[in-house]
Amino acid sequence: MSTSLLARVADGRKALVPYITGGITADWTDYLLACEAAGADAIEIGLPFSDPVLDGPTVQEASDRALARGATVASILADLSAVTVGVPLVVMTYANLVMRAGPAIFCARLAEAGVAGLLVSDLPVDEVAEVELAAAEAGLALILLVAPVTSDERLAEIARRASGYLYAISVMGTTGERATVAGSAAALATRVKAVSDLPVLVGFGISSPSQAAAAAEAADGVVVGSALMRRILDGATPGELAVDIASMRSALG
Amino acid sequence: MSPMTFMAEPVGGRFGDFGGRYVPESLVPACAAVAAAFRDAWADKTFRDELDGLLSVYAGRPTPLTPASNLSAQLGISLWLKREDLAHTGSHKINNVLGQGLLARRMGRTRLIAETGAGQHGVATATAAALLGLSATVYMGTRDIERQRLNVHRMEMLGATVVPVTSGSRTLKDATNEAMRAWVADTERAHFLLGSVGGPHPYPWMVREFQRVIGSEARRQAPVVPDVVVACVGGGSNAAGTFAGFVDTSSRLIGVEAAGGAAMSNGAPGVVHGARSMVLQDDEGQVAEAESIAAGLDYPGVGPEHAYLGAIGRSEYRTVTDDEVVEAVRRLARTEGIICALESAHAVAWVLRAAGTADLPAGSAVLLTLSGRGDKDMHTLIGGTA
Ligand SMILES: Cc1ncc(COP(=O)(O)O)c(C=O)c1O
């Protein structure tokens, strides 16, 4: 499956993809509805893992809080099954949760819950074969990461194997709010676009509407995670979060 | 598959179904660079000579193989101790850090990043950094900082920066997470100096090779091929280095885990810290928090080569409790005049329990790697924080 999950990108629209940690509050799926209403093109849902090595303090805190509340993969997927969100949902998580269930079962459960795509942070293209097969069988898009240090050779292989969209990590580091968007982001997005027809989203550290607009210039859109999760951790309601997302949306044009 | 895999580079970092390189894309090139550099260095006589020189005139190798005569007589076995406690800095960790330190310098890196539990690997890293003119940042859980304070002072004396880690169980697992996060942000300048045989390829292979010196020396020093070779297992590096010297003999290979951190004995296959191996975890794959009096064994995972050797039945794993371990430190101290580390005492505790049983029949020749000395644990042993 090599089709885009972001249909409107084809019309020149810059995509906005918020990231929400699954199970962060009892009625966390209200945040998904708020994202949709405020103009999100897709939503990444983090399945919290005990040892998120690619995440900075904000997503770590969100993961810990969700797990401490008793959120599980099963409960998060059950919550998703109970809502109807009108934009594609992508699960972002770590390899051990996928491997523990078994890739085929894990992917089938995601598909049953209405999820459209899967991104596994610590599953580089070299290790992805088993999950790639399982995702394809379940009809899930497989989103892969590219980084500023990814060689042209690896980039070509990643572009060939990915589907849904490609996720360009803006900066060498973990997720987390940052004051500026690294120059490496635009350079990477340009390299990726040169070798793939899939939409290219820039993520990691996009914290404000102006940063979103800047990051999306060379790319097809942005993923915004920690900045939103910080607001949720500090108590923002779905309505308040929608205001933030709407201002990012309008900055993206 | 033959245990000969213990000799060669594992293809793709795989030990049977275990190992691999499960890291974010941003770390793949850095891991590949370490693998290429190590492959090259390990085949380079100049590098090997320089490392051997340091191991000898700096670290004090070869370490002795001491017959534990009094304890042997009491237990009705022949017990030899491979004395890694006598190596510079007080544990086997020095073998690995000198190797990786030289490699980091050869790669043009200027900074070492490490995780530590007991602080022995942190002290060893700080030592190598001082010797080789590199800077060192060591991540350590706050629970371990409390119970291994002596080693925190040693690291700081050596000029390293110790960064307290407050996430999760505040022990080795969480320190490893932080060290990996720090590495992603500084792969150009920094070498991640992982302290055991876990982690993404090439670490399990490379660290085993740097620790192989324990087993090679012991094999030469042992008057007989032992019936049993035993070592404690946290991540499994002192055991892997020891086993490497005996894997092609008839010796039984026994790894001893902490009852509260027994990935081999109580875990299931899983992916944590870059490798597929045995992991303590729940039904959905959330990694469990280990619980051991020995900070260096307080870890829910284990190196993938152990998972493989266990799966094919070449090595066996046992567990001992905190109480048995404390008793083992005392018993060894009073019979042989050697105060060993709480980690190393796990191997001793198993010998004390098993001697004379079917698991370790009377008359057995036993070679035990005493991975470190116990100075750091005095506070815990006299009733302080555990
Ligand atoms: C003295 C000593 N022995 C053993 C260990 C456990 O490590 P490994 O299993 O890698 O040898 C440690 C770790 O800190 C240690 O300090």
From TrEMBL, chain A:
<dbReference type="InterPro" id="IPR018204">
    <property type="entry name" value="Trp_synthase_alpha_AS"/>
</dbReference>
<feature type="active site" description="Proton acceptor">
    <location>
        <position position="44"/>
    </location>
</feature>
<keyword id="KW-0456">Lyase</keyword>
<keyword id="KW-0822">Tryptophan biosynthesis</keyword>
<protein>
    <recommendedName>
        <fullName>Tryptophan synthase alpha chain</fullName>
        <ecNumber>4.2.1.20</ecNumber>
    </recommendedName>
</protein>
<dbReference type="InterPro" id="IPR011060">
    <property type="entry name" value="RibuloseP-bd_barrel"/>
</dbReference>
<feature type="active site" description="Proton acceptor">
    <location>
        <position position="55"/>
    </location>
</feature>
<dbReference type="InterPro" id="IPR013785">
    <property type="entry name" value="Aldolase_TIM"/>
</dbReference>
<comment type="subunit">
    <text>Tetramer of two alpha and two beta chains.</text>
</comment>
<comment type="function">
    <text>The alpha subunit is responsible for the aldol cleavage of indoleglycerol phosphate to indole and glyceraldehyde 3-phosphate.</text>
</comment>
<dbReference type="InterPro" id="IPR002028">
    <property type="entry name" value="Trp_synthase_suA"/>
</dbReference>
<dbReference type="GO" id="GO:0005829">
    <property type="term" value="C:cytosol"/>
</dbReference>
<keyword id="KW-0028">Amino-acid biosynthesis</keyword>
<keyword id="KW-0057">Aromatic amino acid biosynthesis</keyword>
<comment type="similarity">
    <text>Belongs to the TrpA family.</text>
</comment>
<dbReference type="GO" id="GO:0004834">
    <property type="term" value="F:tryptophan synthase activity"/>
</dbReference>
<comment type="pathway">
    <text>Amino-acid biosynthesis; L-tryptophan biosynthesis; L-tryptophan from chorismate: step 5/5.</text>
</comment>
<dbReference type="Pfam" id="PF00290">
    <property type="entry name" value="Trp_syntA"/>
</dbReference>
UniProtKB/TrEMBL annotation, chain B:
<keyword id="KW-0028">Amino-acid biosynthesis</keyword>
<dbReference type="Pfam" id="PF00291">
    <property type="entry name" value="PALP"/>
</dbReference>
<keyword id="KW-0822">Tryptophan biosynthesis</keyword>
<dbReference type="InterPro" id="IPR036052">
    <property type="entry name" value="TrpB-like_PALP_sf"/>
</dbReference>
<dbReference type="InterPro" id="IPR023026">
    <property type="entry name" value="Trp_synth_beta/beta-like"/>
</dbReference>
<comment type="similarity">
    <text>Belongs to the TrpB family.</text>
</comment>
<dbReference type="InterPro" id="IPR006654">
    <property type="entry name" value="Trp_synth_beta"/>
</dbReference>
<comment type="subunit">
    <text>Tetramer of two alpha and two beta chains.</text>
</comment>
<comment type="pathway">
    <text>Amino-acid biosynthesis; L-tryptophan biosynthesis; L-tryptophan from chorismate: step 5/5.</text>
</comment>
<keyword id="KW-0456">Lyase</keyword>
<keyword id="KW-0663">Pyridoxal phosphate</keyword>
<dbReference type="InterPro" id="IPR006653">
    <property type="entry name" value="Trp_synth_b_CS"/>
</dbReference>
<dbReference type="InterPro" id="IPR001926">
    <property type="entry name" value="TrpB-like_PALP"/>
</dbReference>
<dbReference type="GO" id="GO:0005737">
    <property type="term" value="C:cytoplasm"/>
</dbReference>
<keyword id="KW-0057">Aromatic amino acid biosynthesis</keyword>
<feature type="domain" description="Tryptophan synthase beta chain-like PALP">
    <location>
        <begin position="59"/>
        <end position="372"/>
    </location>
</feature>
<comment type="function">
    <text>The beta subunit is responsible for the synthesis of L-tryptophan from indole and L-serine.</text>
</comment>
<dbReference type="GO" id="GO:0004834">
    <property type="term" value="F:tryptophan synthase activity"/>
</dbReference>
<protein>
    <recommendedName>
        <fullName>Tryptophan synthase beta chain</fullName>
        <ecNumber>4.2.1.20</ecNumber>
    </recommendedName>
</protein>
<feature type="modified residue" description="N6-(pyridoxal phosphate)lysine">
    <location>
        <position position="93"/>
    </location>
</feature>
